[in-house]
Write a structure and sequence with these properties.
It contains nine helices and four strands, in the order βαβαββααααααα. With 221 residues, the chain is an alpha+beta fold. The chain has a four-stranded mixed sheet with strand order 2-1-3-4, with helices on one face. The longest helix is centred in the middle third of the chain and has 20 residues, at 131-150. It is globular.
């Protein structure tokens, strides 16, 4: 008997932190999916085939049978509600609110200010030399806020001893900060500890950029 294909399809790019979040959420919930690569550097997000799925030309996009969702936060909340196994939101209302705050800080006040389009604009309109200082300033400002916010709530993970929505958003923000943007994590010991704990989770590690099918062969080096 032929094996049925997963009904979920994820349009992703290997280094996209927004797609990274969704990959983690899918893994945590044990959901299988087809990976549809969209090469942002080649401009495939602007092809008519993809703009039919997302007119904004952003990844990720999730297709679940006849349902199409095109924002990482919306995708993850959709998964949380439709597939309640291994929940990402705690029952405790305060902890739930902290999870929402972390997700909002990352997705509203950090990632949009350092995405590929913004960095390309800075390179072209200002100077290539200004890209790294810009990103570092954005990340450090966000990390200061996150470190203070989580100080009284963190356990093994961001808001306790179970993986939550906050962790799903934090891991993809922390990984490039350390590996690509040279952020000194000694200034952020709590976030550094959380990052180390994510390294022990297969659900997080399998979602890493360098492990995606569209990652170049030298991505892990």
């Amino acid at each position: 008997m032929a094996q049925m294909k997963p009904k979920l399809q994820l349009y992703s790019y290997w280094t996209s932190s927004c797609a990274f979040r969704v990959r983690i959420a899918l893994n945590v919930k044990g959901l299988k999916y087809d990976y549809k690569a969209v090469d942002l550097r080649k401009g495939e997000q602007f092809a008519s085939e993809f703009t039919k799925i997302n007119p904004l030309s952003f990844v990720p996009a999730l297709v679940d049978e006849n349902v199409v969702i095109t924002d990482s936060f919306a995708i993850i909340m959709y998964l949380e509600e439709k597939y309640p196994q291994n929940p990402l939101l705690p029952h405790d209302l305060q902890k739930r609110a902290i999870n929402y705050q972390v997700a909002s800080i990352v997705s509203s006040s950090m990632q949009p200010l350092q995405n590929l389009a913004v960095l390309k604009y800075i390179e072209e309109k200002v100077s290539p030399d200004e890209k790294l200082p810009w990103v570092q300033n954005v990340i450090k400002k966000g990390f200061v806020a996150l470190e203070k916010l989580l100080k009284e709530h963190a356990g093994r993970y961001a808001t306790g001893d179970e993986v939550g929505l906050a962790d799903v958003f934090l891991a993809p923000q922390l990984d490039p900060a350390i590996k690509r943007f040279n952020i000194d994590m000694e200034e952020f010991p709590l976030l550094k500890r959380l990052y180390d704990s994510y390294g022990e989770l297969p659900t997080f590690q399998d979602a890493m950029p360098e492990k995606q099918p569209d990652a170049p062969d030298n991505a892990a080096s």
